[in-house]
Hints:
Number of helices: 0
Helix content: under 10%
Number of strands: 12
Amino acid sequence: MVLEYQVAPAGASYKATFKVGHGCAGSPTRQIAVDIPAGMRGARPMPKPGWTLEVQREKLAQPYTSHGRTVTDDVVRVTWTAKTPEDMLPNAHYDEFVLVATTPEKAGPVYWPVRQACAEGKNDWTDVPPPGQKLSDLKSPAALLEILPGAGGGAHQH
């Protein structure tokens, strides 16, 4: 499970495109659940025909201000689920699941845990490397987004 664009500037709008290249040991994909990493704000998923969308929100430990409003809860998980067996993503096919969110103000790696459920079996792409280990060393790595230092000056773009 990888992101199409693996770098993004700090404090900017980012389109997260999760590329699904196969099912689970030949079985079709019936659900993709993405945990929104801490620091990513205001996640909004793109609907997919044939798939239901569930957006889970939780209260924030640290509220933040956006467009002059205090934000006290935010999206923590987005789940796409195929409506019928015919809507499932066949193992031999490729598809993308998309959401947009604002990146953290601080540069550094951001890991997106993704759970892929299939008609039979599942793949949990949730492993995060400990210090000194590479993502490529992991069996089921979480999707990695590298946040680069922003342009500075508190710029606010959409």
